Amino acid sequence: MGNFSRDTFKLTNIMHQLITGELVSNPAHYVGIRLQQGVPVLDADWNELEDIRRTELLAMIRYFIGSGVPAGNQGFQILTTSGQNNFSVAAGIVMVDGLLVINENITTYQTQSGVAGLPTLTTPVADRTDMVYLDTWEEEVTGSDGGDPRLIDNRIGIETAVRVKREWVVRVRENANDLSSIVRENGHSYLPLARLKRRAAVAGITSDMIIDLRKTGITLAEHLKVPLFVQMGLEMLDVTRFVAMLTGLRTSLFARLRQAQLPHQTASVQDENVLLIALQEVMNRAHIGEVQTASRNMDNQDALQFMSRLYDVQNDFLDVLESIGNVASDTAIQDFIIQYRNYLDGSAADFIKGLKIAMDNQDLLAAVIAQEELNGFLSAPVTNLPEGTVNVFYNSVIPFEALAAGSAYAFTFEVESQVTSPLGSEEFSIQTASAASWTLSVSQNSVTLTNLGGKTSITVTVTPNAAETQAILTVTAIAARNPLVRSPQPGITLQIGVEPPVGTFFFYADTRLNTQGQLEIRQNHLTRTTGRDILFKIKNDNVSEIRTYGISHYISPSVADTTGWSPLQASPATQNVQVNPNMTTDYFARVDGPKPPASAPPIGTTGEIVSTATLVEINGSPVVGGAAVEIRVNFIVIA
Fold it and tell me: What is the largest CA-CA distance in the chain?
């Protein structure tokens, strides 16, 4: 503690009471200090002036801006890292109760400054929720007694003023959903950073376990209310996606009504009007949300409340439809009601998670995905929303050399649309991801492509950072009007000091991988007589040559007994595929698991599907030593 005569700010000022909660006897509203001539200069006056200015600024930020991260900053984002029971903390800045907290460099829970005394994270025995939070406080620092010797001017040789230093540490409260159970210390401020959804017996912390709780984009110049934003792994929810989800619901219902694809049968004109009013309430609710979100007046909490109400009005509509809209007990109407409710409430038999369980878990991202799946069901008979596939193919990189930290590399990708919709073309947003410390910039944030074959090229400029030697560059194209339509291609692995992969002609193109980078294969697909076809694509960029490729594939399950699995590495499936000039052709790699009455592949079985394409002919002439590409796809068996 510094050698101060007294603390007049604490003794007299209302702002001390406001910020700390400590009562001040007969508090005064002092906002400044004026120095007079011919009188002593006291340390208390100097310090009070500093406290007034500092506390007034702190109060303004705390009460009029709030805690969070400014736009364009990753400050204190919780990310994955290598090792067990550990995570990384992104570099950047954050405001905590009006205090600016700075993390100069990316760090981890186990290696952060001030880690001494922090408990080691434990591997959960059962599924568990942990809270990650920032603890910040201030301490006085002198130039002596183990302080900072730089504070003493050697020309004087004695200590003068002391400094106030802001300290911080990232802590974890295991088995907690919020900060209500932590022990709060006087003078400390706390900020939730993330919620960890830990899985039983899993020591690693993966991206799909991390729910970011920071308020992001708190830049007053951009908006008065923080727009909604959620990111879990590569899955992201922003204003544009939320608006598209609501627009999809509204337009799909209207298209069904207009095209006589909304199953119903009422007994009277009055009942028909009541039913239409219930339907209109759903569409009106969606339209209100579109306007509110697009005007940046809906944050994450608002969106959760809105989704809860949207669930209610859709349920209300189905209640009306069931009570007065199916007077003849028509099977088609009842089937529509059952399917609609399955998408709202979930159906294990149909592998539908449902909107309700997402709302019960206060999971906004899952709720939006559930509603998007429901929109797909509503749109199917009227083809209102884009359906089909979009692919992102990696072509080349300039310069092609071993990657060096601090150097920029331009990676070129081709985006190809294979969607259908009532429109002649569709817009796709471009989403990129890499290591937290690597810098990415994309030439186009969105592209508009003609349906069924439209394509264009985009460039992603990557600048590696020595803080992380390896990264996976992922580029995803997402249909703006139906985010469930997105490219499935996995990212490419990049490493400092190693040449990046060369552009290729053979690509994985099946359903997108989960957040662990695995293809989820249903158990009954492996046991059925037709097996499971895995889609790959072969692309011939040559404008004049007909090229033939020899394709082989096999499955390699991580089990001791591979009886019933096929094809195995010892006898892979092979096929020659001819591709015309400047065309792309599908290749389906069929894989099978053990068939009944043998035991089915256990749920959770993992392994690899390996497929290789080799150029064997050009215009019918054999090619010796043709280019070859091997693709390895991790898989997991699910229910």
Answer: 103
